Amino acid sequence: MATVEPGRVRSGRASELGLLVLALTLGVGAYALVGLGMEGSLPGNFYVLTFGMAALGFGLHFVVRWRAPYADPVLVPIAVGLNGLGLAMIYRLDLASQQLKGDDPGLATRQLGWTALGIIAAGIVVWVLRDHRTLRRYTYTAMIVGLVLVLLPLVPGLGKQINGARIWVGLGPFSLQPAEFAKIAFAVFFAGYLVTNRDTLTLAGRKVLGLQLPRVRDLGPIIVVWIASIAVLVLERDLGTSLLFFGLFVAMLYIATERISWVVIGLTLFAAGAVAAATSFAHVQGRFNAWLNAFDPEVFNARFGGSGQLVRGMFGMANGGLMGTGWGEGRPDLVPYAFSDFIFASLGEELGLTGIIALLVMYLVLVERGMRIAIGTRDGFGKLLAGGLAFVVAWQCFVVVGGVTRVIPLTGLTLPFLAYGGSSLLANWIIVALLLRISDNARRPTPLPLRGAPAQSPPASSADAVMPDDADSLPEEHLTPGVSPGVSPGDATEIIRAVDQ
Amino acid sequence: MVMLAMFLVLMVSSTWIQFVTAPQLNADPRNVRTLYREFGTNRGPILVAGEPVAESVPVEDAYGYQRVYPQGELYAAVTGYYSVIYGRTGIERYANEYLNGSSNSLWWNRLQNLISGVDPQGSAVELTIDPAAQQAAWDALGDQRGAVVALNPKTGEILAMVSKPSFDPNTLASHAISEVKATYQALNAAEGAPLINKTIAGNLYPPGSTFKLVTAATALEAGTVTPETEIPAPDQLQLPLSSSTLNNFGGASCSPTQAMTLADALRISCNTAFAQLGIDVGAPALGAQADAFGFGEKLSIPMPVTPSSFPIEIDGKPLDGAQTALSAIGQLDVRVTPLQVALVSAAIANDGKLMTPYLIKQVRTPDLSVAFSADPSVLSTPIDTQTAHDLRDMMIGVVQSGTGTSAQISGVQVAGKSGTAETVKGAAPHAWFTAFAPANDPQVVVAVILENGGDAGSEATGGRVAAPIARAVMEAVINK
C-alpha cells in the first residue's frame, strides 16, 4: 500500500511520461474524432491544439522532473487527459452551435487559453514552491485571502450575478469565479489551523447514543464556518459553493481528529441550514422542487428554475445508453449549459455509460492518489492539505455529478478539468501542482536529503522515515501521546531543511 | 471509505439513468432527442415497382433529412405520413423498424455500420402495389368518397389501395411545425376523414348484397343446395315473429313463380331469396362461415386491419329470424372493411383457399441484400374447391347478365358481385362491387365502395357506379 518502500525507490518519471503520452492521445484523439464526426475532416486547428497540448504537457512533465522528481506520476496524466476530453467536448458543442445557429461561441479556443494558463500556473507553483510547509506560515493570511475571495462577488460594481447566483467577478472581458480559488486558500487555512488545534478538537466530551461528542466549548470553529457557508448560500444565492466549503471543512476536521461526531454535527448543521434556506428562499426552494419533482410537467416547463435542464440532461444520458452515440453523433447541445454545468451529461450521451464510468474512475484514481499522498507525507500539515485538496476534488465531482444525475439537488459548480470555465481550470491545476509538491516530499527516498549526495535507502530505525504501512495507521500517528500539539514529526525535517537552505 | 462510496453512488446513479431507466427516458414524449435522432437517420425509401413513393433527402436543418413523397396523394393510404409532431401512420409506422434500420433482423448491418463507421441507413421497403392498378383505381374513383382495394388472390399481395379523399403526406412531413399543425387540424376536421385509410380502418361499412356470397357459400357448404336448386323468392318476405316484411330492391319482383335457382337469385341479387336462405341455414352457420372468410380476424398487412364483424348475438340474445334474415343480406349489424369484401372474393377466386393479404414484398438493406422476403401463406380454407367453383360460375353470371354487367371486359371473363347497402334513413346507400378476373385464372381481385353512392347519390347501385371502377382496376392489371 505504501508508495515508498525502503530500499526500492523509483521516481516514477518514466511512468509519468508514458501515461502522459496516453493521456494526450486520448484528448487529441477525441478532438480529431469530433472533427471527423461532425465535419468529415480534422478540425482546422488540430495541429495547433495537438502541438500546444503536447508542449504544455511535456513542459509540465519536465518542470516536475526537474523540481519535484519524486512527485506522484499519475496526477499530471490524469489532469491532462480530463482536460483534453473536456476541450474536445467543448469544441464539439461549439461546432454544433456553429452548424445549427450559425454563430461560433469560440469557447474551445478560450478554454484552450485557460488550459495553457492553468498548466503554466501549475508549473510555476511546482517551480517556485520548494516546500509545501512554507504555506503553513500563511495559515491566517490564507484565511483572509479566502474570505476576501468569497466576499468579492458581493462588492458592488465588481460582482456579477449570472443565472441567479452572485458568485462571479467581472474583470474586463473575463468573468472569474473567485470561490474556485478560495477553496485552495481555505484548504491551506483549515490544514494550518487544524494541525495546530486538532488535539483540542479531539478531546472527548459527553457520549451520546454511543457517539463521542466533542466538548461544547470546542464547537466554536465549526459554528463559524457553518455561519460563513450559510452566509454564502443566502447572500450569493449559491448552494454549490456553500456546500463545497462546508464539506471541505467537515472532511478536514474528520481527517484531523478521526472523530465521526464532527461529521454528524456538520451534516446536522448543514441539513438544518439547508432546510431553513429551502423554506425561506425562493431560489433554493426552486432547486429542491426541481430535484424532487423533476418529471412533473409543471416543474419541467417552468420558465425559470424548473427541472427542464436536469431532465433534458437525463434524456441525453439515456440517449447515450451503454456505449454512447460517439463523438459528434449525439445531441448534447439540446441541454442548456451543456459545455459547463452539464458537461457530464454531454459526455454521458456521446461516450455512453462506459465512457463516464471511465471518467469517474479517472477522478477516483486522482483522488485516491491524493489520499495516498496524504498518507505518505511525513508532516501533519501536508497530510491535512493533501487530504483536503483530494477531498475537495472528490466532493466537487460528487456535488456536480450528483446534481446532474439527480442524486442531490442541482448546484452551479463545475466539474474539475472537464467543464468550461477558466477559474475552475486554473484552480484545479494549482491543486494538482500542490499535490505534486506534497507528493514529491512524501515519496523522496530519504527523509533528510542532502543536496548533492546520491539518494540513499533510509535507515529503517528512523521513526520519521518509516512510512505508515496502511491508511489505518494515520490516526494512530496523530493521536500518539507525547507529541505536543503543533509539532508533528515532519517539523524536524522542516528545521533541517531551513538550515540547509 | 467515504470518497469511494461517493463515487460508487455516482456510478450507480449514472447506470440508473443510462441503462436501467433509459428506455423510459427515451420514450418520454418531452424527449425531443429521440425525435431528432430518428429524423436524423437516413430513413430507407418505400418503393413501388422500384420507384420511391417515400424517400429521405438530405436537407440543411436541425434534422438533416426531409421525408418526401413524390406522388403524395396517390399513395397516401399506403405510405401514411411521417411527422415530427404527429408521429407516423401507414407503412411509415408499421414498417418503421425496417425503414429506420433498427429491426432485429438488421443487426448484422448495424454491426457492420458500427465497425466501418458508416452512418446508419434504413432499409428499403418494397411494396406489392402495382402502380398501374393504383393509378387506375385513383383515376376511376375521381373525386368521389370511397375506397378501392385490389389483391392477387393466388398470393395475397395487395395490388392497389386507394382511399378518398386523400391527403398529401408532404404537408405533414414538413419540418415547419406551425404549418404542419394547421394542416393536420384542417385534415382532421375535414369531411370524409382524409387521414383514415378506408380500405382497412375507419367506420366499417354494411356489406349489403356482397354478403350474399357468404350466405350462398354457407348454404353450398352445408350441402343443402346446389346452384341449380330452386329456392323460394317471394315478392315480399314476411319476417318471422315480426309484423314487418322485406322487399326486394326497388320493390321489384324476383320471379313470377316466386321461386328461382340459387344462381339466378345471386345473379339478380334477390333479397327475399337470400333472406330466406339465411333463415334456413341459421345465424350460427352464417357467423361461422363469415369467420372462415376472415371476419373477426386481426390481420396486419402490416398495418392493422379493423376486424369485420358478423354478430350472432344482439344485446346478448341470439339473432331471431328477422335479424338473421337482414344479416344474411348484409344489413343490420354486419360490418366489413373493403379489404374483407375483397378477401371473400379472393377465397372464391383461389379455389377456396384464402391467402393472407400483405403489402411488403421485400426489404432490402442499403447494400441490397434481402433482409425480409414475403412468403405467401394460406390464412384459411373457408370453402372447398367445388363450392368455390360453384360460386365463381354464379359470379360470372352476375357480370354476364346480372347486376354487374358494367364490369364486363371484352375478351376476359369476369366474375363479380354488386352490393347496395342501406345506411341510415335518408342517406343514399353505399355502392359496392367486388370482382375478379380472368375468372378461370384469376390475377386480380378487387373490392370497391363508393360512400353514399358517390356522385350518383341515391340513384346509385353498386352495379352501376362501383362496377366500372372495379373493371378499370382489373383491366390495368390484366392488360399489363
Describe the structure.
The complex is a heterodimer of chains A (501) and B (480). With 501 residues, chain A is mostly helical. Chain A has one domain. Chain A is 64% helix and 5% strand. In chain A, the strands form two sheets. Chain A has a three-stranded antiparallel β-sheet, with no helix packed on it. In chain A, strand 4 and strand 5 form a beta hairpin. In chain A, helix 13 runs parallel beside helix 15 and helix 14 packs antiparallel against helix 15. Chain A is globular, with a radius of gyration of 23 Å. The C terminus of chain A is likely disordered. With 480 residues, chain B is of the alpha+beta class. Chain B has a domain of 271 residues: DD-peptidase/beta-lactamase superfamily (Beta-lactamase), CATH 3.40.710. Helix content of chain B is 38%, strand content 18%. Chain B has 18 helices and 21 strands. In chain B, the strands form seven sheets. In chain B, strands 3-2-1-6-16-17 form a six-stranded mixed β-sheet. A five-stranded antiparallel β-sheet of chain B has the order 8-7-21-20-19. The mean pLDDT of chain B is 85. At the A-B interface, helix 12, helix 13 and helix 14 of A face helix 1, helix 2 and helix 3 of B.
